Amino acid sequence: MRTILRAYLRGLWEGKLVLGYTLLLSFSLLIIAPFLMILLRSVGKGWFGRLWFPPQLTLDWYRWAVEVGNIPDVMKNTLIIGVIAVAVSTVIGIFAGWAFGRRQIPGKEILMAIVLLPRMIPPITYALGVAKIFYTLDLVNTYLGVALAHVSVCAPYAILVLATTFEGLDERVLEAAGVCGANTLKRFFYVVLPLIMPGILASMIFSFTHSYNEFTLTLLTYGPHTVTLPVRTYLAVGDGYWEITSAMAVIMVLPSLLILAMIQRRAKPERLVGGFKGV
Amino acid sequence: MADGMIEFREVTKRYGGLVANDRLSLSIRRGELMTLLGPSGCGKTTALRCLTGYIRPDAGRILIDGKDVTDLPTHQRELGMVFQNFALFPHMSVWDNVAFPLMIRSAPKAERAEQVGEALRLVRLEGYRGHYPRQLSGGQQQRVGLARALVYRPKVLLLDEPLSNLDAKLREEMRFEIKEVVTRLGITAMYVTHDQAEALALSDRVAIMNRGRLEQVGTPEEIYEKPGSRFVAEFIGLSNFLEGSVQTVDGAEMVVQAQHLRVLTAALPGAGPGQKVVLFVRPNEIEIRPRPEPGVVNLFEARVEKATYLGDTMDYRLTLGPGLELRVQTDARNRHDQGAAVWLQLPRVRSWIAEG
Hints:
The structure holds two protein chains of two kinds.
Chain A: H1 2-14, H2 16-43, E1 44-45, E2 56-57, H3 60-67, H4 71-102, H5 108-120, H6 123-137, H7 143-167, H8 171-179, H9 184-213, H10 216-221, H11 229-239, H12 242-266, H13 269-274
Antiparallel strand pairs in A: 1-2
Chain B: E1 4-15, E2 18-29, E3 33-37, H1 44-52, E4 59-64, E5 67-68, E6 79-82, H2 94-104, H3 109-122, H4 138-150, E7 156-160, H5 168-185, E8 188-193, H6 196-202, E9 205-210, E10 213-218, H7 220-225, H8 230-235, E11 240-250, E12 253-258, E13 261-266, E14 276-281, E15 287-289, E16 299-309, E17 313-321, E18 324-331, E19 341-345, E20 350-353
Parallel strand pairs in B: 3-8, 3-9, 6-7, 7-8
Antiparallel strand pairs in B: 1-2, 1-4, 4-5, 9-10, 11-12, 11-14, 12-13, 14-20, 15-19, 16-17, 16-19, 17-18
């Protein structure tokens, strides 16, 4: 009996490749299926009941999304807010990253925990607080306001990535630049900056993706002039037009795919993330 | 003292309770290649870093070419430096690396090109101007480092264990290359290393450091031939030590009793009968004779414990009595079998007053 069991187990073990591929395929389907669903719905017409495939294909819903949903404006808002959030986060990231990566600061772990706090507590809790403060400061419904709310999410990533980048800088190379006659400013621009450029790029990409995808914080700080893509799509769900919402959702994915394609061509994303510590 | 190009005056640096430099005073003459030699933790790197301005001494002054630089930041000290790990700028080509000090000083383009070209010629890397550091071998990278350090003709060249990241054969070649370049340019150089062979081969003078202090400063010959302390003798070359006490002093000579041996040696100033002393003799300064010869001083009977063939030399371990062992190196043609009874002659024995 036992030998049979063992043989059976060995059979499973030797079949681990088949098993692995099956699991991988199911997993991929799990990831892809919802997206496939949305994609089909955004181009399908008269797709009701138990049909496997839409009977008619159309691009009408995209036209509706652009005209009625005001997507170009919303896209503009999203990009402007994203750029502001990236700029602020990167500057914060460079300074804080330098401090975390190169200095011995007392209570470094505690400080790092505080920096990461906005990511750890439930977004809605945090967003409520942010909204309350922003209403008081009249920052609601301004690009800067929404962008600053995003910074609370983007900056921790920027700080983490850049702290790791700075940690990897060779102290001796900076010393060499000093001996060669470069003062602090020249050392930064001629040596430090070029060497941390990959880290800055990675931090910018992370920041932008997070700002672009941010929903909860935006929902509580947006106004009529600062609607972003995720919020617009969510509002469209409320209007009940699944096809138009799907079209918006697909449009929203395009820039993400573009960025992904860019990273894949220029660098290996796992190398960008590989430097992470503590996340 | 007046012609000192680099001067340490009573430089002290503490790290907590550890004194890394203890009132270090050292003067390096113009055009001289001085090696700071010592085991790790002896303070030589601290001294170097005080000189570059990377750390600030707690007390004392540092002068370069008569100018007090103690309070100057690194970039105003007009130094050239070669690093142990090369410390090249990884994002710059060989040409840009070497041109960096000139670019920082906003040297005119034409002048810059000429000087970079000359520096690369000096280290025989003209053909590699477009390469990046990662494409070069260790030796080539270090030559780029040397060119970068020399390109703007600094007053002082500092070398921080520049050869320790290279393999043995290359190290030997680079040794001569550095020596030649430094000599040709007539530049004042301070070379920091823990490798005594390197120090002997390269230096005009060697400063040996131990526990934050200078043990001895002298030419390679001086420190090898006349080590000023047991530490120096142990650190430079091979040595035999014998502990004993002075029996009689007779003018310029004295007799020291070391176990059952009565050794005749030059008198030590201030050492009277009864004084404990340490005798010191190099393994290659002892002669082995097959039989006793009358009228020869410091001749002792011994037995060959172990004979090792080293190619050009023979390495012997000989016992002269219980717990009394000497190491002797002779010409490989002078062969004695293991276990043979021989006679040792110690023609030249030096001594110091024993510590403690």
